UniProtKB/TrEMBL annotation:
Single Gene Ontology BP annotation: chorismate biosynthetic process
Keyword Transcription assigned: no
GO cellular-component term (any): cytosol
EC number: 2.7.1.71
InterPro entries: P-loop_NTPase (IPR027417), Shikimate/glucono_kinase (IPR031322), Shikimate_kinase/TSH1 (IPR000623), Shikimate_kinase_CS (IPR023000)
Key words, A-Z: Amino-acid biosynthesis, Aromatic amino acid biosynthesis, ATP-binding, Cytoplasm, Kinase, Magnesium, Metal-binding, Nucleotide-binding, Transferase
Name this polypeptide is given: Shikimate kinase
Quaternary organization: Monomer.
This protein's encoding gene: aroK
Amino acid sequence: MNPAPNLVMIGPMGAGKSSIGRRIAKHFNLHFADTDHAIVERAGTSISTIFKYSGEPEFRRLEREVLHDLLNHENRLIATGGGTILDPENRHRMQKRGFVVFLKINVNTQLERLAHDRYRPLLQQIDRKQVLSDLYATRQPLYQKIADMIVTTDHMSPNTATAQLILDLTAHWQKSSNTA
């Protein structure tokens, strides 16, 4: 099994961190946690409302607190928000307290998956493709830098991506335990 205390899913919006993460957590008998849901619970209001009235810096502060609290536990699968990676402290903690899986997708797949999403504050722009392209350019190198494993989920259903990730994780952990 996973030698790290937790399994952490990172990647852009629409990559499948939450939907795939829930399935992976169930398979490996891990407690599932979603940082965005935990932020909403802690703040008592929606992410859109936090962005609108308190701004992105306050949201990022809450995100850092929630992530650190979740990482202090063990045997969790933590699905992070797409921008969690921006904070150097978050990156350090994720690497220290988890096995980090980067779910990678291209911008066109993101556009398809998020076409009807009206809840993500960073997507409330006219040119969604440009916004997603800009976010991808900024965040992609950070995702890759801390990832222990990269799985491309383009053109995969959540079930297919889950099955592939279960195989990849199992093989990796077996290989790690054989070399330890």
